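Morning. Coffee machine broken again, so started the prediction first thing and wrote up yesterday's gels while waiting. Chain of 325 residues, entered below exactly as on the submission form.
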Amino acid sequence: MSQLLDKLSFETGMRANELRRIMYTAPNRYKIYSIPKRVGGFRSIAQPAREVKLLQRTLAKTFLTTLPTHAAATAYKPETSLRSNALPHAGRGPVLKLDFRDFFPSIRDRDWIAYCRQTGCLTEDEDIYLTSRLLFHRRKGESHLRLAIGAPTSPILSNILMYEFDVRVVETVVADGVTYTRYADDMTFSAQRTGNLTHVIRDVGRVLRDIQYPRLALNPEKTTLVTAKYGRRVTGLTLANDGRVTVGRDSKRKIRAAVYQAVNGRLDPEQMQVLTGMLAYVNAVEPEYLDVLRRKFGTQAILKIQRAPRGEKIRRRSPALAQNR
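Came back before lunch.
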């Protein structure tokens, strides 16, 4: 038995033959459903069976997390956030945003196999074959395997397989004074002047043609260039002209109004949970705005919203709360 299978066996308590059986049949052990996209249409989700998900998470914890990812890749990492993706572009000028077409489904099992052969991270043929079965999903009617939207390993694996792309893009654009970050399929480039961004699309296209894997294509419909004169947004966050990263004025108005409703007992349990998540988002992106809310509504009111258990409403507090601003 290989060292990889031995490690998975130790971590899960499964025997080698059982591991092989699950990994071999993993591409077909998914539940498929659809969720609506924000911009219309539906996105297909492939949810792995429980035993497949267990092995995927174990492989991620014991092996995939040891493989390199680039600092420019800011998604799916415990130490990074949406703010981490936007912050390098704060205080800069125009922002160019590019997007990949069908990012996860375009990443194939052949890309993982090529990566293993090139880097030597796995050397035994059985390990390479079984992990390619475990990590990728087979769509109905297709013979090849794709990265699944819904598998716990897909996010980290995408960053691993995009490492060479990220390296080459950074090396290419830095000469023109361009800053680059990537949050999953969203690429952001910023510079002091629009002229510095002139060749970015051409350069990214060249990198995509030159790399061995994965084979990706840009989505020209999502290409946008925004100057400092207009609202520059990066992965949903606003780049203020004074160099700050904020949640934006519209979001702040909605959050402030929701807190007012909560303090006055007008939110149902589901709305309370949404507001709790909004405050957590603000705390991660722009914690200074939480101080504004505390001064306006009172520290205890905000704390109670943050700690509200499922099913509890925030009741109207005494007049003393209103004075604590």
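Residues 311-325 have pLDDT under 50 and may be disordered. Going to sketch it on the whiteboard this afternoon.
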